[in-house]
C-alpha cells in the first residue's frame, strides 16, 4: 500500500531531474530532494533556510536547523550570506514552498485568513517564502489538500507574490515563479509570467472533473492530460529504506 | 602589548536590570539555534512592560513574554511555534485583542535581515529584491521603494533597525565579551552591532587563551558587547550545538499549553515566576531530563595559525 | 544522504585557459593575505590581453600583469606596493601613458567592498556613507547619489560589480570546492559570489572529512566554485596564515625592480616567462629560501559540533 | 637624544587619553596607540584596517595585516564587517590618517599631485582613508614634514573630505573630521565643522613664525600657544623598552 506522502514525494522528486540546487524546507520537500539525489539528480545540493549547505545528517532532521544537519556539513552560512548571496544572488534552481492559499498565477498567502488588520486566523507569515519566490529560478509547491479553500479565486492576502504581481508593481522578476503544484489529485503547471496554472497530469484514478471541483477558480486543463506513473518499486525502496527508514515524514 | 579587556561579566538578573527598561525596543535573536530563552524569562520575572520585541522567528519565548504582559509591540517575520504548531497567546492577542491588542509590524525574513544590516551599518535604508507585488507594503508603511540611479529600475527598501538592546545566546565568550559561536550563526552579529547596548548570554565563560587560539571563531568582538552572562542551558528548549540538543517534545507540547489560558498561566507560574533564576529552572528539570538531551563528541580538526620563528 | 559533490580539480594552466579570456573582467582578491600571485603569473604566461583587472589593493601582482601587457583597465581603491614603495609600471602607465594609457576607475576601499556586496546580492546599487565632498565622484561617474525615502537625507551609492571570473587563493578546499580560509578572510566570499565563474587556488586539497569537521570554517561553499587548483606557495610574496610568512624583502625590492624598465623586463623573463609553472617558480626560489619563511605551530583549540546519541 | 619619531609618538599618545577605540595604520600611529595603552588609555583597543581586533602580537607588526597580528588576536573580521559594522557603524573614537596634502579644514589628498586625469605623481589613493574620515568620531593626522608642499592653500585633489565639504555636498557628517595635526613643529587643532586648523602648541624651540612659514595658507594661531612638554623619562622608557624595543619604527 503506497501512502499519499510517498506518492507526493516520488512525483516531486522526478521534477528535480537535472537540477543542481534546491531550497527546501523539512518534510516532503526534503524527502523529494533526497530521493532525487539518489535517482534523477545526482549532483543536487539541498540548501536549508538556516544556512546549511551540503548537509550529511546522521539522522533524518526534524527542523531546517536540526543539529544533525550541521555536524558534518560542508558549509554553514550566516543569514546575510544565505539570503543575500545564495538566494537573492540567484544560486537556487528550485525553491519548494507551501501555503495556506494559492491562486491561479501561483501567488501565495501564508499570513492570514480574513483581513490582515483583524484576522480570523493568524498564520505564521512570510518567513523566507517571499525571498524564495522572488529569487529562485522556479518554485514547486506541494499541497497535500487540493480543495477550494486552498486553491482560491482570490487570496485573502498576498504574502509571496509571483512574477505577474511583481511586474504589475513595476519590478522585473528574476525567476519564473511557481511552475509546478503537486497535489493529491495531480500536477498543475505553468511556464512563467502571463500563464495561468493548468492541470497537466492526474494520479491514476483521479479525474479532470475532480480537479475542477477541487479548485476555486475555473481551472484550465491541458490538451493532453497525462496519467502520472505510480511510484516504481525502486523509487519506493529507496524512499523507505534509505531516505526515511524511521518513517518520520512518510506518515 | 594590549592587556586583557575590561571584565564585563554580570549575573543575568543584573544585566537585565541594567540594560532592559520599560518601553525599550529589545531584540532577541537566534534562528532555531541558541534562542535566548533564559533572558526572556528573566525579563518576565522582572516585570518589564511596554516592550517592543524584535525577533525574526517569534516562537515560544515570545509567546511567553506576551503571556508575561511585557510586550506592547512585535516586529517579526515569522510568528509560529516552528513547525510544531501555534502560539496560543500570540493568536489571542492578534485575533481577539485578548487580553489587549498587539501592535504587529510584519516583514519577510530577508526584510528583517536587511533592517539589521542597515542598523549595523548606520545606513538610512537597505535595498532588497523582495516585496514587489506583495500585500505587505500595504499594511507596513516602513516598506518603501527607491529608484536606481543606474537605469529605470525600482527596488524596495527597508529602514534601519536600532534596538535599545540586543540579547543573544552563544556557546562561549571571554570576560571582555569576545563571543564565539559555531553551528548556525544566524543574524547575531548584525543584531548586536545594530543595537545601542548588547547582552551576550553564554553556555560558558572561558579563558582568554581559548578565544585567542581561534580568532576567526569570534562572531562578536568585545567592543560591541556591554554585558557577558554565564548561564548554562539558557537556550532551552532550543539547542546549543555541541552542548545539548533541542527539546522537541517541549516544542510539540507548547500548542496544548498555550491554547488554554489557565494551563498557560499555570505553566508560567510554575516555570518562570516559580523559579528564582535560570539555575533553578535547570535544576527543576532534573539530571535525568538533561541526560536525554546530551550530545556526543564531534570535534573540529584544529588549524594552524602559525607562529613567527625568526627573532 | 548526499554523496560527495562533483570533482572540480584542475591544473592552474587548465583553469586559466578555461575561465580567463581576452577582454574579460577578472577580479583577483586577497587583502595583503593570500594574494593569488600564481594565478596572475599564469595569466601572463598565457598572454591574455585587454583584461579589466579588479583588485582593491593593486600591488605587485597587478604591476606584473601590467608589465605582461595583459591589462587595459584597472578598477581599484589603492595602487601601491603596500607601505614598501611604488609600482613602477603602473606609474609609467598612468603618469606617462608609457607604453600605453591605462584606463583607471578609482574607488575607496569600502566603495569596492560595496560594489562586491551589490554584485553578490544582485542589487542595482549599494549605499555607503563615503564620498560626500570628495573629488572622486567628479572623476568617476559610477559614484552617484540617492535620496532616502525616510527623510530628506541623501546618500552616495555604487553600482554592482560582477566580474566574468574571480580568482582567490585559500589555505584549503575539498575537491568539490568547499573552501576554508583562516586569518584574514577579506572580501573573498563576496568577490566569488559576485562573479560569473570562480577559480579557487589552494595551498592544499584536503579530504572531505577535514572540511566537514568544521563547516563554519568554510568561507566559500562548493556551489559558488567552478575550479579548484592545488598550488602550494601560490600566494608568494604574500603569505598564507599557518603555511608560510610574508616575503617582506621582496616587497621592499619591488620599487627598485619596477622603476627600471629593463630590470623589470629581465625579472619578468626570468621569473614568469622563464618558469613553466608555479612549481618551477617555487623550486627556483629553493629550499633554503622557503625555510626562511617557515612558520611554527599555533593550533586552534577544537570545538565540539556534537553528535546525536539517541537512535 | 630624543628622535623626532619618539617625540611624535609620545605627543600623539597623550592625545588618546580616555579613548576606547582607535583605527590605526602601521608605524607612528601604532606606536602612539600602544604607548597610550600603557599610559593614558588603559582600555584602548586598536582596530586594524585588515580586520584584526584585540591583537596580541608576538613581534612588532610590519604591515596592518602582519601574520603576528592574527595569531593570538581576539577577533578577525571580514572586510564587510570591519568597514560596515565597526567603522561605518560608528564604533571608532579616533582614526589616524596621513596624507600627501592637507588644507586648513582638514581635507586630505592621497590620490595625485597635479591633475587626476594626467597626474604628475600618481599616489596610492584612498584605501580606507575616506571611510576613516567619514566615520570616526575624530581624526588625528601625523605629518612628519611640516612644509608648504604638504600644508596647502588648495588641494590638487580632495580624496578624503572633512565634514565641511560633506555638508556643502548635502550630507550631514557623523564625526568631527580632523581635530589634531601633529607635526615636527607642533600641534594644529580644530573643534569640528566650521573651524579652521589653528596652531595651538609648539615643541620646545619651535616658533610661531616657523609654523606660519611652513604652512601654505595664512595660519591662524591660538591666543595661548602652549609649549609641548618633552617626552618624560617614563614615556621614553616604555616606548623604547616595551613598545618598539627593536626600533623598527623609532628611526
Automatic annotation (TrEMBL), chains A, D:
It holds the Pfam family CoA_trans. Gene3D superfamilies: Glutaconate Coenzyme A-transferase (3.40.1080.10). One of its GO terms (molecular function) is transferase activity. InterPro entries: CoA_trans_fam_I, NagB/RpiA_transferase-like. Keywords: Transferase. PANTHER family: ACETATE COA-TRANSFERASE YDIF (PTHR43293), CHOLESTEROL RING-CLEAVING HYDROLASE IPDB SUBUNIT (PTHR43293:SF3). Belongs to the 3-oxoacid CoA-transferase subunit B family. This is 3-oxoadipate--succinyl-CoA transferase subunit B.
From TrEMBL, chains B, C:
GO terms for molecular function: transferase activity. InterPro entries: CoA_trans_fam_I (IPR004165), NagB/RpiA_transferase-like (IPR037171). Gene3D superfamilies: 3.30.30.40, Glutaconate Coenzyme A-transferase (3.40.1080.10). Keywords: Transferase. SMART domains: CoA_trans. Coiled coil: none annotated. Belongs to the 3-oxoacid CoA-transferase subunit B family. This is 3-oxoadipate--succinyl-CoA transferase subunit A. The gene is catI.
Amino acid at each position: 500500500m503506497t501512502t499519499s506522502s510517498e506518492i507526493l514525494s516520488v512525483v516531486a522528486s522526478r521534477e528535480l531531474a537535472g537540477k543542481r540546487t534546491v531550497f527546501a524546507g523539512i518534510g516532503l520537500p526534503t524527502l523529494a530532494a533526497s530521493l532525487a539525489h539518489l535517482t534523477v539528480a545526482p549532483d543536487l545540493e539541498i540548501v536549508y533556510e538556516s544556512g546549511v549547505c551540503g548537509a550529511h545528517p546522521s539522522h533524518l532532521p526534524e527542523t531546517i536547523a536540526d543539529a544533525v544537519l550541521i555536524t558534518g556539513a560542508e558549509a554553514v552560512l550566516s543569514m546575510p550570506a544565505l539570503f543575500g548571496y545564495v538566494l537573492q544572488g540567484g544560486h537556487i534552481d528550485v525553491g519548494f514552498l507551501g501555503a495556506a492559499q494559492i491562486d491561479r498565477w501561483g501567488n501565495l498567502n501564508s499570513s492570514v485568513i480574513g483581513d490582515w488588520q483583524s484576522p480570523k486566523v493568524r498564520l505564521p507569515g512570510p518567513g523566507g517564502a517571499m525571498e524564495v519566490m522572488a529569487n529562485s529560478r522556479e518554485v514547486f509547491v506541494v499541497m497535500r489538500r487540493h480543495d477550494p479553500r486552498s486553491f482560491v479565486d482570490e487570496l485573502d492576502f498576498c504574502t509571496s507574490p509571483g512574477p505577474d504581481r511583481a511586474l504589475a508593481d513595476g519590478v522585473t522578476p528574476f525567476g519564473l515563479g511557481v511552475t509546478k503544484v503537486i497535489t493529491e489529485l495531480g500536477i498543475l503547471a505553468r511556464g512563467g509570467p502571463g500563464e495561468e496554472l493548468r492541470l497537466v497530469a492526474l494520479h491514476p484514478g483521479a479525474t479532470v472533473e475532480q480537479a475542477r471541483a477541487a479548485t476555486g477558480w475555473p481551472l484550465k486543463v491541458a490538451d493532453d492530460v497525462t496519467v502520472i506513473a505510480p511510484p516504481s518499486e525502486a523509487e519506493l525502496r529507496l524512499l523507505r529504506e534509505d531516505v526515511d527508514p524511521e518513517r518520520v515524514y512518510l506518515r | 602589548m594590549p592587556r586583557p579587556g575590561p571584565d564585563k561579566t554580570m549575573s543575568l538578573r543584573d544585566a537585565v536590570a541594567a540594560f532592559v527598561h520599560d518601553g525599550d525596543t529589545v531584540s532577541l535573536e537566534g534562528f532555531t539555534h541558541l534562542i535566548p530563552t533564559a533572558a526572556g524569562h528573566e525579563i518576565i520575572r522582572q516585570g518589564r512592560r511596554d516592550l517592543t520585541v524584535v525577533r525574526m522567528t517569534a516562537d515560544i519565548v515570545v509567546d511567553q513574554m506576551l503571556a508575561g504582559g511585557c510586550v506592547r509591540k512585535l516586529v517579526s517575520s515569522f510568528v509560529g511555534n516552528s513547525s510544531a504548531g501555534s502560539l496560543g497567546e500570540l493568536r489571542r492577542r492578534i485575533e481577539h485583542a485578548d487580553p489587549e491588542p498587539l501592535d504587529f509590524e510584519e516583514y519577510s525574513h530577508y526584510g528583517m535581515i536587511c533592517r539589521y544590516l542597515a542598523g549595523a551599518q548606520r545606513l538610512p535604508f537597505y535595498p532588497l529584491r523582495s516585496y514587489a507585488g506583495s500585500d505587505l507594503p500595504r499594511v507596513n508603511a516602513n516598506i518603501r521603494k527607491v529608484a536606481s540611479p543606474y537605469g529605470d529600475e525600482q527596488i524596495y527598501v527597508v529602514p534601519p533597525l536600532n534596538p535599545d538592546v540586543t540579547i543573544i545566546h552563544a556557546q562561549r565568550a571571554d570576560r571582555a565579551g569576545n563571543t564565539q559561536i559555531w553551528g548556525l550563526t544566524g543574524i547575531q552579529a548584525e543584531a548586536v552591532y545594530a543595537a545601542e547596548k548588547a547582552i551576550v548570554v553564554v553556555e560558558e565563560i572561558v579563558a582568554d587563551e581559548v578565544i585567542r587560539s581561534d580568532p576567526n571563531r569570534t562572531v562578536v568582538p568585545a567592543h560591541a558587547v556591554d554585558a557577558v552572562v554565564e548561564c548554562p542551558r539558557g537556550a532551552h528548549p532550543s539547542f546549543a550545538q555541541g552542548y545539548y540538543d533541542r527539546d522537541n517534545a517541549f516544542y510539540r507540547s507548547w500548542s496544548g499549553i498555550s491554547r488554554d489560558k489557565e494551563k498557560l498561566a499555570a505553566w508560567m507560574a510554575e516555570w518562570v515566576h516559580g523559579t528564582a533564576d535560570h539555575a533553578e529552572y535547570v535544576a527543576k528539570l532534573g539530571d535525568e531530563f538533561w541526560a536525554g538531551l546530551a550530545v556526543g563528541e564531534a570535534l573540529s580538526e584544529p588549524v594552524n595559525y602559525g607562529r613567527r620563528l625568526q627573532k
